[in-house]
């Protein structure tokens, strides 16, 4: 296979780039009048996964990505708004056949296809796994508040809101929950509502300043509501804590769950 070489755009005839992604300095005469032969540059480095190389131009050093040099030399100038894309997802493969100018959306689609984009649980800052995020979205669709869901998953209500509103993981498809899961979420939802109502009744002031029979009844109701809420919450929290990895831990919401 013959390696084709062309001049690097913007550097006169000082450098050449090949269709295999190699860069070399052209033969020249140095300041002392000596003949300097062509040589392959070995100062390439990886930055963000891309191969970059330092070239000398007009008494200054320029750091440029090699895949841009190949495309500009063999395809043409970079069109406004387009990215240099790697067809196979390997940022170190800068052969001409593996490169193209394309839109940012197409570039992101390539990253998704090749699994090189840090999204969802692959993102180091993610607070929830993809499966947990899907469960949180299902719980919200079944009527649970951000605050209750946040307690279950040990995150802030804002984190749950960002998933519910499509700010986080908008690409993720959320399956319909099974009957057992719906039952568990409904139990927690109803217990949370009853707890809120009962505690609200207790907080109401007593006009006579006395602990009446009505107030005593309200306290008993609140205690039962809190107990019921804690029991339902315990089931949900246990389910979350026993599923740290996707599709591995037992599903407490399965149809045959006790």
Tell me what you see in this structure.
The chain is of the alpha+beta class. It has two domains: about 5-115, Homing Intron 3 (I-Ppo) Encoded Endonuclease, Chain A (Alpha-Beta Complex); about 125-240, no CATH class. Helices cover about 40% and strands about 15% of the residues. It contains seven helices and eleven strands. The chain has helices at about 65-75, 105-115, 130-140, 145-155, 155-165, 180-205, 215-240; strands at about 5, 15-20, 25, 30, 35, 40, 45, 50-55, 60-65, 85, 100. The strands form four sheets. The chain has a four-stranded antiparallel sheet with strand order 1-2-3-6, covered by helices on one side. Strands 7-8-9 form a three-stranded antiparallel sheet. Strands 4-5 form a two-stranded antiparallel sheet. Strand 1 (about 5) and strand 2 form a beta hairpin. Helix 3 runs antiparallel to helix 4 and helix 6 packs antiparallel against helix 7. The longest helix has 29 residues, at about 215-240.
- Spatial shape: rod-shaped
**Percentage of residues in strands:** 15-25%
Number of helices: 7
* N-C termini distance: 66 Å
Overall pLDDT level: 82
User: How many separate domains?
Assistant: 2
In the sheet with the most strands, the strands line up as: 1-2-3-6
Number of strands: 11
* Gyration radius, in Å: 31 Å
| Low-confidence segments | 244-258
How would a textbook summarize the main sheet?
4 strands, antiparallel
Element-by-element helix/strand order: EEEEEEEEEHEEHHHHHH
Name the helicity range: 25-40%
Structural class: alpha+beta
């Amino acid at each position: 296979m013959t390696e084709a070489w062309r001049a690097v755009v913007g550097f006169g005839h000082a450098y050449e780039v090949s269709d295999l992604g190699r860069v070399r300095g052209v033969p020249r005469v140095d300041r002392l009048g000596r003949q300097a032969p062509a040589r392959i540059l070995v100062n390439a480095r990886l930055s963000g996964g891309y191969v970059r190389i330092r070239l000398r131009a007009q008494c200054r050093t320029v750091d440029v990505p090699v895949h841009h040099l190949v495309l500009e030399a063999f395809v043409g100038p970079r069109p406004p708004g387009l990215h240099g894309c790697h067809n196979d997802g390997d940022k170190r493969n800068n052969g001409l056949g593996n490169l193209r100018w394309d839109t940012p959306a197409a570039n992101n689609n390539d990253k998704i296809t090749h699994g090189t984009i840090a999204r969802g649980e692959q993102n180091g800052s993610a607070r929830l796994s993809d499966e947990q995020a899907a469960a949180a979205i299902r719980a919200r669709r079944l009527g649970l508040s951000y605050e209750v869901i946040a307690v279950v998953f040990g995150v802030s209500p804002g984190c749950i809101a960002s998933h519910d509103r499509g700010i986080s993981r908008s690409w993720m498809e959320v399956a319909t929950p099974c009957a057992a899961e719906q039952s568990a979420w409904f139990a927690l939802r109803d217990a949370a509502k009853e707890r809120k109502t009962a505690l609200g009744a207790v907080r109401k002031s007593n006009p006579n300043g006395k602990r009446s029979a009505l107030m005593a009844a309200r306290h008993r109701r609140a205690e039962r509501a809190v107990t019921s809420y804690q029991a339902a919450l315990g089931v949900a929290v246990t389910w979350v804590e026993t599923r740290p990895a996707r599709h591995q831990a037992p599903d407490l919401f399965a149809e045959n769950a006790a």
